[in-house]
């Protein structure tokens, strides 16, 4: 079959066929009808929004002898001549011709009058790619153009165009094309081709086009090559989206605090060759659908998902708490940003999944809200008489000095947010010997990619800006045992080793954001979360910490809580010293 890319085949020939961008078309048509064509235009906007198509139609329309509603008639001598390809319309791709020679050449040739029509049109695509000297050469032409010359400059990055050029152009901004317009366009093309299609498939392709008609048509083309009719399944195959059932399984596990299952399913997707980035995006998109199903009445129509997928989405939305959905989306979005700096994307993903599935280990206000909501649901589900005995003041771990906040949030025995009929492992009676994980199946210790991000990467990854301040809190790094100089390095080794210990997931999560410093030969680990310090100093985790540190030859270490006020006071003092540097200020 003669192959012609869809987006070439369906390249619009008249202004009416341009998808969206009416605001641009209206201006141009008006100028054509009034015969007030300018000398230079700048078309700005994202790729695939129709800049080049509009430029080509415009170039023919201003030469056409009898334009129809501003568009070229396609029948007059000029239209026929230009359709053949003519010297009168020149397209220059600045991305490959960014040299000053091309612009000088243009400057010379532009002086010759047009062969067929009234105007010679130069369409310079990706004009921001021109070099400075090429811009200068172009500027000379724009300053005194011959009457028959029209320039259409197109760019995705208008901020890179020199002001001297901008000021000589009429600027027109192209917008991203809304999903429903893309869908309509694709459906009309498919109808024209006589291909059968599922509405969900068209919606998915339009979504993947992300506002670009050209991108959408390229994707549609790949999907059409897959089979005679366009099915949602073929589309997800081509787009490499995780199959919906797996997405549903992961999201459902995350929102019901089943970290083990979430990690298992994720692991399976990765082992099937999906990249971490794609999986993250798929999960976010699925969560987004869940959020929409949670909050919109006509979600089914809005989402246009296949029946079974929507059923799964609706089921998850109904069971989940709104705050939990938002929190999960936030964490995944942060992980996606982090990916760019992470030396091991897989660990970023796993950590994000763990944080979502273990709101009880996370002391962000959002996580606490999720826990409260889960608790409220459980209390509401209890038979009236039992309500009093709901979550009793849970036994606290023996944890040194600070206890004031402990009553509010029992750190160990927990609420969880799993359905009441099937208690998650951490609600079962504690095993005789210290257990370090509520998620027994968590596939920690996956082989190759098991290394933690290097110390600087971890610093970049630490969410709170306070992390560096905390690090400053522990001064004077010193050598604990020959060779190891940086406490961060020692602590990094500790974390790596800890990760390989079976069932150490909770401890690992707690330790991850500690800042390491050295004081008088003692490795001092600090946190500004009191609960973390208390829990780590408790009986449950300390023995394993001791053991792992001992393997590294570190026998003196401490976990400390550093209050915000202490840090504020310290930085206030620094400021005071700076402001009054002439005065001797004693620090007590
Ligand atoms: Zn014509």
Main pleated sheet: 5 strands, parallel
The end-to-end span amounts to 86 Å
User: What's the number of extended β-strand segments?
Assistant: 8
Mean pLDDT: 78
Q: Could you say which structural class the secondary elements and strand pairing correspond to?
A: alpha/beta
CATH topology of the largest domain: Rossmann fold
The largest sheet has its strands arranged as: 2-3-4-1-5
Report the helical percentage. 40-55%
Number of helices: 26
Report Rg. Answer: 32 Å
Bulk shape = elongated
CATH architecture of the largest domain: 3-Layer(aba) Sandwich
Bound molecules: zinc ion
CATH superfamily of the largest domain: P-loop containing nucleotide triphosphate hydrolases
How many separate domains?
4
Q: Strand percentage, roughly? A: 5-15%
What is the CATH class of the largest domain?
Alpha Beta
- Poorly predicted runs: 386-484
Topology, pairings included?
Elements: H1 6-9, H2 22-33, E1 40-44, H3 51-61, H4 77-83, E2 89-93, H5 100-109, E3 120-125, H6 132-143, E4 149-155, H7 163-166, E5 170-173, H8 179-193, H9 199-209, H10 213-224, H11 232-239, H12 244-255, H13 259-271, H14 276-295, H15 299-303, H16 307-319, H17 322-339, H18 345-357, H19 365-381, H20 455-461, H21 466-473, H22 487-500, H23 505-511, E6 515-519, E7 522-527, H24 530-537, H25 542-551, E8 557-561, H26 564-579
Parallel strand pairs: 1-4, 1-5, 2-3, 3-4, 7-8
Antiparallel strand pairs: 6-7
Helix pairs in contact: 5-6, 8-9, 9-10, 9-11, 10-11, 12-13, 12-14, 12-16, 13-18, 14-16, 14-17, 17-18
Bound molecules: zinc ion (ZN).
């Amino acid at each position: 079959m003669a192959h012609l890319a869809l987006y070439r085949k369906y390249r619009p020939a008249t202004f009416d066929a341009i998808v969206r961008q009416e605001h641009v078309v209206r201006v141009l048509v008006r100028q054509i009808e009034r015969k007030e064509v300018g000398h230079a235009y700048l078309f700005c906007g994202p790729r695939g929004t129709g800049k080049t198509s509009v430029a080509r139609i415009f170039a023919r329309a201003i030469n056409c002898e009898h334009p129809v509603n501003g568009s070229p008639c396609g029948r007059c001598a000029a239209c026929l001549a230009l359709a053949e390809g003519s010297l009168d319309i020149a397209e220059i791709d600045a991305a490959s011709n960014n040299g000053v020679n091309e612009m000088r050449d243009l400057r010379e040739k532009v002086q010759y009058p047009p062969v067929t029509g009234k105007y010679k049109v130069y369409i310079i695509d990706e004009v921001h790619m021109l070099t400075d000297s090429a811009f200068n050469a172009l500027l000379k032409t724009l300053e005194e153009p011959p009457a028959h010359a029209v320039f259409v400059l197109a760019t995705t990055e208008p901020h890179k165009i020199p002001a001297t050029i901008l000021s000589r152009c009429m600027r027109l901004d192209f917008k991203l094309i809304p999903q429903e317009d893309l869908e309509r366009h694709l459906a009309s093309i498919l109808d024209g081709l006589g291909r059968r299609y599922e509405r969900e498939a068209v919606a998915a392709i339009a979504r993947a086009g992300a506002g670009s008609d050209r991108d959408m048509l390229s994707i549609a083309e790949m999907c059409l090559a897959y089979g005679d009719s366009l099915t949602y399944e073929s589309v997800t195959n081509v787009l490499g989206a995780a199959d919906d059932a797996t997405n549903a399984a992961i999201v459902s596990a995350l929102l019901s605090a089943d970290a083990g299952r979430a990690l298992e399913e994720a692991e399976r997707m990765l082992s099937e060759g999906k990249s971490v980035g794609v999986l993250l995006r798929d999960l976010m998109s699925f969560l987004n659908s869940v959020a929409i199903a949670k909050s919109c009445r006509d979600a089914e129509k809005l989402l246009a998902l296949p029946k079974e997928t929507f059923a799964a989405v609706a089921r998850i939305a109904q069971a989940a708490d709104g705050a939990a959905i938002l929190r999960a989306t936030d964490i995944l979005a942060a992980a996606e940003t982090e990916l760019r700096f992470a030396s091991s994307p897989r660990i970023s993903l796993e950590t994000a999944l763990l944080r979502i599935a273990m709101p009880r280990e996370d002391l962000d206000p959002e996580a606490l809200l999720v826990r409260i909501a889960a608790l409220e649901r459980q209390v509401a589900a209890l038979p009236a008489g039992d309500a009093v005995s709901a979550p009793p003041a849970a036994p606290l771990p023996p944890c040194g000095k600070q206890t004031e906040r402990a009553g509010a949030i029992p750190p160990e025995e927990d609420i969880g947010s799993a359905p009441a009929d099937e208690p998650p492992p951490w609600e079962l009676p504690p095993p005789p010997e210290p257990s370090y994980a509520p998620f027994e199946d968590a596939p920690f210790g996956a082989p190759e990619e098991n290394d933690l991000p290097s110390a600087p990467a971890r610093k970049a990854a630490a969410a709170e800006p306070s992390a560096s301040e905390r690090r400053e809190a522990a001064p004077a790094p010193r050598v604990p045992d020959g060779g190891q100089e940086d406490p961060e390095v020692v602590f990094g080794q500790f974390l790596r080793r800890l990760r390989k210990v079976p069932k150490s997931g909770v401890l690992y999560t707690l330790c991850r954001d500690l800042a390491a410093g050295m004081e008088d030969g003692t490795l001092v680990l600090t946190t500004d979360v009191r609960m973390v310090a208390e829990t780590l100093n408790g009986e449950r985790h300390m023995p394993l910490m001791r053991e792992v540190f001992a393997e590294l030859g570190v026998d003196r270490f401490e976990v400390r809580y550093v209050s915000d006020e202490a840090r504020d006071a310290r930085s206030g003092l620094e400021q005071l010293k700076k402001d009054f540097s002439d005065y001797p200020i004693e620090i007590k």
